[in-house]
Structure formats: structure tokens, C-alpha cells
Amino acid sequence: MTATLTRSQQLTQQELDFYHQHGYLRLQGVFSQDEIAELSDELDYVIENFATRGKGWSGPWRQQLMNADEEQQSVLVALHEIECFAASWMRAIIKPRLVQSLADILGPSVEFHHATLHAKGPDFGAPFPMHQDHPFYPHQDGRYIDAILHVDGADEDGGCLKFLAGSHKLGALEHIREGSPHLDQTVYRIEDAVSCPADPGDVVFFSIHTIHGSSLNRRPRWRRVMRLGYRNPHNRQLSGQGYGRPGLMVSGVRPKLGEEKPDVYGDPKLNTALQRDVAAPVPPAGPPSGTTNGGPNGGPNGGAGAGAGGTAGVERINVYGNWGPQAQPLRDDD
Ligand SMILES: O=C(O)CCC(=O)C(=O)O
């Protein structure tokens, strides 16, 4: 028996063409002001209690994109899997308008893969070098969309996303592995990228192969966005963030791929890291940590304790999972 879905299309043909031609797409007003107010409140609570604060991604590119003062003061707050912390975010991840838009490009079946917070601090909100997201969670092909849900607006001075239009057609590129994976900033120049300003409630889609980055947030307010990763479930993951962890099906059904069965139960024998974390003393709350202690993609355990009003003595929550060595981040701050 074949499960079929009949749903009306959400995206216009013009929007579909734009995505396929440029590798990104801004969808305006996907979330209402009321929805954003609730997401914002719950996000602030989660940041205060569980997020990791640091200087942002590491690597030699920092000196190229920031002066010495900016480099020292840059701030980024990160967290994985917000849906494990706040119900409003679980509802956001499965919001029908969002999911149908994703299904129009990826579908009909769509699997949620991960959520990662990137909150740039005021005045010195950390920039991102030009890169693809492929090295962080490599997949076999391009049927993977990162959807950036904007809780705050972001314009040119507010550290908005910037894309090299059409670069998704290059496929997966080799990245420089010194620090966080990034491309040669003199070849793939942020000056050549198209800015994609957005308002609260907007969602910006881009392909796992689209080259992108963003500048410092120079505005005197936070720029909080959540990256929600979704894929066509036929597109197999090869390693990296969330590897081996079956995602939630947000549209359609999981295809049966050969004889393999997804490991939804987990393997307690593999779970040594979780046991170690629970047994280990949690470091006390302290001043903002450095580049190597917390970054845009956070540590594997969400890192309670450091900065942003972290809560001392609270057991760290392993939302990253422990699905074997291929699932681990390249570094704690990736
Ligand atoms: O949040 C940003 O400004 C950039 C995010 C980014 O590069 C990413 O999510 O891969």
C-alpha cells in the first residue's frame, strides 16, 4: 500500500523558481506578531537558563572580517534543539504553512533534522564567515533546507544573512578546517553576497550547498534567529551534527530504504558520554566564555552555566544525543 498526500501547494511558481535559481528564498510573515511574542518570551527563558555564550566561530577568518576590538568583544549565544526546552518552538517547527512550503521544494515527505539558535549580541554580534552548511552535517545531496526563523528583524547593520546567489549549484565544496569550517574569504567574498534583510516572523530558506555568511550586528539590540534544518528523508546523512538520530516526520511518511530500520530506540551501550556528563560536576556560572568554549552551534550538551545568566548546579541536558563518533561536532564550538 502506498501512502499518498494531497495537499495544496503553498509556494507560488515564482517563489519555487527563485529558490531553484538563487539557492535561497525569503518568506514574509510566516509567523504572526502574537506567535513571535510567545516564541520570543520562551526563547529568552531558555537562553537565560540553558544556552552557551561565546565569541562565535573560531578561525583565521576572524581577523579578516573584524578589527581587533570587534574580534575581542564579539558575542554569540547558541543552543541546540529548542524543541526540547519550549513547547511554542515545537509548534513552530511543525507549523503547517512552514511545513507545506518546505514540502513544495523537498517533499512530499519532509523530516525535521535539527534546531540551532544563533543569537548575536548587541553592538558586537558575532559575524559568520562565508561557508556552506554541508561540512557541519554532510548529506548525500542537496535536498536539505535550512530555514532561518527570525525572532528579531535583521538588516544590513543588524547582521542579516548574505548569500552568494546561485552558489548552491556548485555542490559540496571542500572547506578550510582551521577553526570552524569556512571557505577562503578572498575567493568567496562577503562583499559579493546579496543581503537578505528580514523582519520578525519571516523565514529564510537556503540550501545546504548555498554559500552564505553574515556581518557583525552593530545595532544596540539582540539579533535572535533559529536555524531549523529539514531534509527529504531519502537524502542520507554521512556524518556530523545529529548523525544517526532519526528526525521527526513533519510531512508524509518515512520511506522504507532497503532493509534498514531507523534506530528510534537508541543504544544505551553507546551512552557513556551521557552517563559521564550526569556524573561530572557542572561548572559554576561565570563570565562569558571564550571562543573555544561556546559558539554558534554550541557544545554537544547545550552547555548550561556559562554567561547569559546561566544556572549553576543544573544538570546538563544532552539534547545532541550520542549516536556514535560520526555524530559529534567537529569541535565544541561548531
Ligand atoms: O545566523 C547567521 O547570521 C548565520 C547563520 C549561518 O551561517 C548558519 O546557520 O549556517
Account of the 3D structure:
There is one protein chain. The chain is α+β, with helices and mostly antiparallel strands. It has a single domain, classed as q2cbj1_9rhob like domain (Jelly Rolls). The chain is about 20% helix and about 20% strand. It contains seven helices and twelve strands. The strands form two sheets. Strands 1, 2, 3, 4, 6, 9, 11 and 12 form an eight-stranded antiparallel beta sheet that branches. Strands 5-10-7-8 form a four-stranded antiparallel beta sheet. Helix 2 (about 35-50) crosses helix 5. The termini are far apart.
Short description:
With 334 residues, this protein is an alpha+beta fold. It contains 7 helices and 12 strands. 2-oxoglutaric acid binds next to strand 10 and strand 11.
Major sheet details: 8 strands, antiparallel
Report the sheet-strand fraction. Answer: 15-25%
User: What name does CATH use for the topology?
Assistant: Jelly Rolls
DSSP summary: helix tally: 7
Q: What is the count of distinct domains? A: 1
At CATH level 2, the architecture is Sandwich
Bound molecules: 2-oxoglutaric acid
Q: Into which percent range does the helicity of residues fall?
A: 10-25%
The helix/strand class is alpha+beta
SSE order:
HEHEHHEHHEEEEEEEEEH
